[in-house]
Amino acid sequence: MAVLLEANELMSIRGERMLFSDLQLSVHAGEIWQIVGPNGAGKSSLLRILAGLLTPQAGSVAFQQNPIAEDRETFYQNLLFIGHKAGVKAELTAIENLEFYAAVQGVELHEPPYEILAKVGLVGLEDIPAQGLSAGQQRRIALARLWLTQAPLWILDEPFTALDVEGIALLHTRFAEHLSAGGAIVLTSHQELITELYQVKALTLRYQH
Amino acid sequence: MWRWLHPYAKPEATFALTQKLIPWFALPGIILVLVSLVWGLAFAPPDYQQGESYRIIFVHVPSAMWAMGFYVGMAIMGVIALVWQIRTAELAILAIAPVGAVLTFISLFTGAIWGQPMWGTWWVWDARLTAQLILLFLYLGVMALYVAFEDERAGAKAASILAIVGVINIPIIHYSVYWWNTLHQKSTVTRAITRLEAPSIAPEMLWPLLVSILAMLLVSIVLVLMRLNNEILRREIHRPWALAELGITLDSSAKAHNDAEKKNVEKKGGADAV
Amino acid sequence: MLTANKGSTFKVFKQLVKRDIRVASRQRSDLLNPLIFLIIVVTLFPLGVGPGPDILGRIAPGVIWVSALLSSMLGLERLFRDDFRDGALEQMLLLPVAVEISVLAKILVHWLLTALPVLIITPLLALLMNLPLQAWGTLWLTLFLGTPVLSAAGAIGVALTVSLNKGGALLSLLLLPLLIPLLIFATAAVEAAVAGVSPAGPLALIGAFMVLCITLAPFAVKAGLRVSVN
Fold first, then answer.
1. Which CATH superfamily is domain A1-78+153-209 in?
2. Would the N or C end of chain C have less CB density within 10 A of its end CB?
3. Is A5 helix (H, G, I), strand (E, B) or coil?
4. Centroid of chain to Cα B15
């Protein structure tokens, strides 16, 4: 399978502390990588470096052999990143939020994405400004983007937080679908991913003093 | 040990270099300060218009000049810090800013003291004074932004950006302030000031002035280098080389350390070539 | 193998503008407050210095412009603050267009929402301050050319301070010195018009300053945002 994302000799220092160095990671199409490690080990920092939000102190990240800093347009057309903060505007309804992200990612919507919102369990809440919804429900709006996107590479920071059992199962199904379609996922999660739908590869970060 | 090699070798090297440089600036600096002050205050002839009070220019002019110069230097460090992500350049901003701000303040303060006998008032909205006051605000902004961040490196980057934005804007600010001043020149005071701007200065006054300008530069550089070294030491205090650096000073002041520790210190500190 | 569609730069720009205007339209009080502040400050001056029309007319350009500067500081934080809190800012940096383009969209929306109302009530301010009629047009032009500077330079300041808890006072300290040329050129233009002289010179300078700010600010904003989202 083709290499989608490749990280070479990454090093990250936050404040005065070395998080990791000499980190290598090759994400192939069809793979899901879980970044594992204790709090403060640099999981989120690694994801942000992979997404190009944070510049590593050393090393480089390449998407399909091209360094991400050089061709950011191609990279971000092919990347879906959902961080700690969901990026959902509280003043807008679920539909409006999704329509915005679909449009800027170049996805054509022929009708409002009711079906997708129904899938993530937001039936009847489509037209309420997101500030009226619970944290879990807001999170679901952000995750609904997973059904809208055509990006092959997903980078997800703790996608399972604030989700109930049903929501977690739903996410697993979507992951499996994405992987079999030739996509790839890099994510962090506190709990182990227990599923028979796909094989998880793990990258462990240790807390360094 | 290998983990610190890549970016952290740099502050160590800089520290060693500045330690070596400081005496080369400090000694001529002190000598020139003494020369320029004695020459300027005691031997230069009094001004035919201002009498003795003009002698404050031997402090006022150099500080005003280098206040601007150090801002530009700080912005250059900002570019280096942003483009090459060099730690020492970030610390240099922190080292330069207060020195520059104090220079600016000295020029304003001496300007006010000079203004009182000359113009009969402590403050006039003279173009140079105003521009200098704005420069002080710019310095304060950079310093305030630097320390406002919890993550120090983020603060350094933010301060770098601000310093660069400021340095692009400074010529415009200067131009606008001078233009504003000529536009509003109604009071007799400001006209008196412009009249005082002698087109030529007597060589007996010019030479000590030039010496004092050089002296101010050297002394300010020494202050910046010392501040830089302090900042480097503060950041690196838990690194072996920094401990060695401090250990050596402890050692020479009180020989209370045992031999084993001493050896350890020497072994690690050897590479620093202090 | 999945492939992504190519969205055009202009489309992303348009979407950002549309979304931000929609967001702002649902929190209208935020928009009104700086405007009311501006009117009140301008109202306070005649109360402070006395209602003599000759004094008021003479200080009008300065008072209106200083008040406009201060009131723009009030609403400035909105430019990126909410986006920073809810993660939309992060997503903005990940859009498949140059960050500078997205920043320009934010600046444009901010200008539309804060400067346009000021431009509409300018005659009211001129009236309150007894500005001679022949200078009204010039005052409006200085505000028209100068307010984009406030939005663009303001964006730099907000980008640098948005991640700080108490960025407000710091923001003014960073920005006001940088905006001094604008204040000088603008008041000079209006004063020239009051005196019956052509204000073309200072107006051209404001225009040049505006072009400089709008072209260079996005780069500084981008750098500032990258520091702040980390």
1. P-loop containing nucleotide triphosphate hydrolases (3.40.50.300)
2. N
3. strand
4. 18
